[in-house]
Amino acid sequence: MNVAVLAHEKFPDRAKTAVGLLRYADYEIEAVLDRDNAGKRVADFVPDVQDAPIVAEMADVSEVDALVIGIAPIGGGFDESWRSDVTNALERGCDVISGLHYFLEEDEEFAELAAANDCELWDVRKPHDDLTVAQGVASEVDAEIILTVGTDCSVGKMTATLELVEAANERGADAAFIPTGQTGIMISGWGNPIDRVVSDFTAGAVEEMILEKGDDHDYLFVEGQGSIVHPAYSAVTCGILHGSMADKLVLCHEATREAVHGYESFDLPPIPEYVSLYEDLAEPVHETEVVAGALNTMHVESDEAARREVEQFEDELGVAATDPVRFDADAVLEEIL
């Protein structure tokens, strides 16, 4: 499928959905919409992903099958400055895929245009209707369950999870990805959007996916969300931790980050505190331990400096760590598999 990805004024640093699709999705991405960087190319900003031209609006895009909204502001709202891009796509017969909390199918204008032009509106963050509470049985599946957890939101949990799944499969292990967020769902084509699920059903929504895949694979890598210390997103983190009943945890962190993203008045605790927090919170439901770390060094310029950051992270964490995008994952996989 050929797509255009909307990332106005956020590409690349605050367009993690767009960058995730460029790196991992099977879509052929024809263009990225970003009015601030029109005329440039993806490779000017992110060299290790699928390249594409950056254009100012959907009207500048050649024929595609779909428009993907590749950014999700805090709160997941719809920015009215995007309306002309969405209407242009629908008028041309393109499907529109969105990971917002604002559901496009409930927007009267978009719904009418989609019906008139035989288009699909896929609101990825809309959970199915049959979710319920967890039974506390995820640990009964045959697979070993590995969960990525974070020091903060937007530190690379999805990226680390996908990189570890790929590296594990390359080693001959039978590993699968359990998507819990909009970008992971767009990449894999299935999953439950955990941050949109009713609180009582959060653990159950994770457990449902574990039960669906857990007897078909040897390892399940569960995509984490948020952080247990996040002032807004800690609830979804706890739900995934308890619902997955993970056997092992991989702690994800971004090098040089010292405060909560978007909530800079909140300082991040020291790394060792996270180990205790996650392990102690999980223990009454299912005992687990942090066995490895994944460090996002995208804002560290040189490989030499990045390796020093990884070494410091390892020292603080007390277990093996790597940047799975920049370096190999061998040492981390030794602790996981």
Concise structural overview:
By secondary structure, this protein is α/β, with parallel strands linked by helices.
Structural topology:
Layout: E1 2-6, H1 16-24, E2 28-33, E3 54-55, E4 66-69, H2 83-91, E5 95-98, H3 108-116, E6 121-123, E7 144-150, H4 157-170, E8 175-178, H5 182-188, H6 202-213, E9 219-222, H7 234-244, E10 248-254, E11 259-260, E12 263-267, H8 271-282, E13 289-296, H9 303-317, E14 321-322, H10 330-336
Parallel strand pairs: 1-2, 1-4, 2-3, 4-5, 5-6, 7-9, 7-10, 8-9, 10-13, 13-14
Antiparallel strand pairs: 11-12
Helix pairs in contact: 1-5, 2-3, 6-7
Describe the structure.
The chain has 337 residues and is α/β, with parallel strands linked by helices. The protein folds into 2 domains: 2-123, 3-Layer(aba) Sandwich (Rossmann fold); 138-336, P-loop containing nucleotide triphosphate hydrolases (Rossmann fold, 3-Layer(aba) Sandwich). 31% of the residues lie in helices and 19% in strands. The chain has helices at residues 16-24, 83-91, 108-116, 157-170, 182-188, 202-213, 234-244, 271-282, 303-317, 330-336, and strands at residues 2-6, 28-33, 54-55, 66-69, 95-98, 121-123, 144-150, 175-178, 219-222, 248-254, 259-260, 263-267, 289-296, 321-322. The strands form 3 sheets. The chain has a 6-stranded parallel sheet with strand order 3-2-1-4-5-6, sandwiched between helices. The protein has a 6-stranded parallel sheet with strand order 8-9-7-10-13-14, with helices on both faces. The mean pLDDT is 96.
